[in-house]
## 1
Amino acid sequence: MQLEFYKYQGTGNDFIVIDNRKNVFQKKNAAIIKKLCNRRFGIGADGLILIENSTEYDFHMVYFNADGSKSFCGNGSRCAVHFARFLGIIKNKTHFLSTDGEHEATIRNNTIALKMKNVNHVENGNSFYFLNTGSPHYIVFTNDVKKINVPEEGQKIRYNKRFKKSGTNVNFATLKNSILFVRTYERGVENETLSCGTGVTATAIAASIHFSLKNKSIAIETLGGKLRVKFTQKSQQHFSDIWLIGPAQCVYKGSLEI
């Protein structure tokens, strides 16, 4: 079968995006997903996105990690919204369904603002924070995130006794001149990625607690680009009206025999 696909990136987080409204893609075949995301034997990507029909929403976004497992992806969702506009499904705002439920988003030029789920629990450990922003995230603040060996240190936490079975994403961050620098080890990719939308969202929330930030609109820098996270903090445990804001870009279109 000839598969038509689009390659997208959102601050360096890259995705294979497929219009699956006619159910042409074998989404239950994890081996195909892993092969397509493989950077040596396939197209290469951090994840794969399917855009499907929905009776109650504008569209249904189905997301797979590079290893074929399902999850929610913030940057992937922003790219999916951009693609849905390209397909003519939506215009400048949308209400769509993803792995963790319904989401809203708006588009202005190539900047997508994605509304995330409310956060109602933040674990504050001795040297870490842990919370779920659609995907689980373990956060460590450090004086200089540039010096951290993210693949090595992230893997230690992701595969420790607590997280080995279900996994977690691991974020390392530094706050400097009111800018939060974030690097992420992603489960499902099992390596550092250039950016992670749910990761920067979780880290911004943790930073608000850790540094007692009064400004609830936080500028983020990742290896792949700049993002912004806005939210309302109700307490040390409760955060609402959370928005992940940043660019999305179609890199190229292609076809592949599978």
Note: The chain has four helices and 17 strands.
## 2
Amino acid sequence: MYFKISKKDFLAALSTAARAISNYSPLPAFSGIKITADKDQLILIGSDSDISIQTILKKSDDCKLEIFDMGQTVIESKYILEIVRKIDTDMIEVEMVDGVQVKISGKSAEFKINGMNADEYPLIDFSKPMETFTLSNESLKQVITQTTFAVSDKETRPVLTGVNFSCDGSVLQCVATDSYRLSKKSMELSNNVKFNITIPGKSLLEVLKTLDNDGDVEIAVNDKKAQFVINDTIIQTRLIDGVYPETNRLIPLEFDFELTIDAHELLGAIDRASFIKSDGVSVIKFTLSEEGCILSSKSLEVGSSTERLNSASFSGEPLEISCNGKYVFDAIRALSGDLVKFSLCGEMKPFIIQSLRDDQVLELILPVRTYA
């Protein structure tokens, strides 16, 4: 194996592939990046067995690449990234010498690093699943940012650590919940597909890091894996086993109270009250009437805060409802638009938050009981 490539392109591809590598790799080979020099392209693969990333560099006007000798090797990711990042040159030469040892050179600097035999790297099947659909980069960004914050961080119910993607026709529904809050995003697709899968939240966050500002992403799924094809990069993730809970029955359909409020004013008020906590949780209380909205927080250990929200408009009988302030803050921050609407059923019943500008996403939050 012997090739020459621009430092900028090589470092970008290495950084992309390395994002799939865990500090606690199940196999020694998974601590490295597999590099394959083919006829006219360079293929880089990183994996931790749960998520795998393959990115391809091809010779073009934008990418300076010359392959003199084909071959493949596996190099510890932290070492090759460190070398390529710090080497002071525009073009880098990579050559395999003495079996598995790899020489990396540029200008007057030369490094020799011990690689691993590529045959020891597990075979990863990047074949495309049958069910495919396309989303724009911007749409996929919205799906990820508006759902992943609500996944559970507890492994007691593994299926809740992922986002459920389901479609039976042309409407994609993406749902995340930790059983105390729920986020649901709906989106119209250009074709009909049928699937019901749960993708790990951490895998979706890696996809988010790779998305460009424009263009489309091809998504292919089956009952074992999901693939995201972004330009010349494939991000492939295993799915979470288990049946995702039926969440539609949790979402109220009729409401007795409605609050409309400026999102920025409410976020600021919650942020100012967030230091007042009981047992590590910031509980906020909305006191609602047609005269206005008062946001308060109280803790025996810390103190209390009270703030009137001037932009609030409320309809319904007077109501007091308490909830986790962080949950409301996260939900509103995930929505777009200046005005948000709270649809409520009662003091201890789940309520919904939506943007007046986008009815394709809703956030549901369970209230909490307070005794003061």
Note: DSSP finds six helices and 24 strands in the chain.
